[in-house]
Amino acid sequence: MTTVNRPGAPDGHVCGIDTAMEVIGGKWKVLILWALHERPHRRFGELRRLLPGVTEKVLASHLREMEADGIVRRVSYDEVPPRVEYSLTEDGRRLNDALEPLAAWGRERSAAGRRGLPAG
Amino acid sequence: MTTVNRPGAPDGHVCGIDTAMEVIGGKWKVLILWALHERPHRRFGELRRLLPGVTEKVLASHLREMEADGIVRRVSYDEVPPRVEYSLTEDGRRLNDALEPLAAWGRERSAAGRRGLPAG
DNA sequence: GTGGGTGGTTACCTCCGGGTGAGCGTGCAC
DNA sequence: GTGCACGCTCACCCGGAGGTAACCACCCAC
């Protein structure tokens, strides 16, 4: 998603931002990242409860994509009932760190109470 | 877009990230931000040429939204032919700064050549 | 046997962000 | 009067991300 066909970079990306945007471009991905950052080794149902409104299908596909992107690690234990644990990879942790300034910006904006109002 | 109805914050946001994600959640918004960061006071047609593939409609609506979000300033000169200049507000500049680490992460990832491959 | 909890998959369907193409209103060049 | 450049706006359409709901396999508690 959000792939921009643009010359200038071999992979069609302009400035690294859109590379990152592709990775975090799912509706719930940053929240998953956040949940996994707060505490590593989250289980599927735990994540689902932490993200009220997400459906199993979407959560599962998001996690698959993030695993394929190398930012989430999935460990499945061969038990009954089945147990699966998700955690951040090193790359995922660095992505989360890179998101912190953005989060700070958002928090500032929320604190300032502006939610679509023109800036002063 | 990407609005998550979630308790815990008065505005339905969890951690500031999704506040930011809403603001930059358009297909071309980060690129507009980038173009406006490289040089302030871009004209409409200039931006269109800088973002090959964007349509007038989408560029216009993106700019309107960013203006409403207070990160872009729009100055219209009453001339013929009409001239409109776009620039970043202070908030927009800070947003761009907050995006830098993310861009660095993306550049690193591009440099590492991984584009969806599992992490090693 | 019925229900619950585990972590999914599958088949549909909805919704809206974004793409397409046209038109507008002005003045200048031809 | 025809066309162009500018910076849009409007009406329409499409694709895909995401939502809905059912189902699967397993075991335990009742």
Automatic annotation (TrEMBL), chains A, B:
InterPro entries: ArsR-like_HTH, HTH_HxlR, WH-like_DNA-bd_sf, WH_DNA-bd_sf. PROSITE patterns: HTH_HXLR. Keywords: DNA-binding, Transcription, Transcription regulation. The lineage of its organism: Bacteria, Bacillati, Actinomycetota, Actinomycetes, Kitasatosporales. PANTHER family: TRANSCRIPTIONAL REGULATOR (PTHR33204:SF29), TRANSCRIPTIONAL REGULATOR, MARR FAMILY (PTHR33204). The keyword Transmembrane does not apply. It comes from Streptomyces pseudogriseolus. This is Transcriptional regulator. Residues 15-114 form the HTH hxlR-type domain.
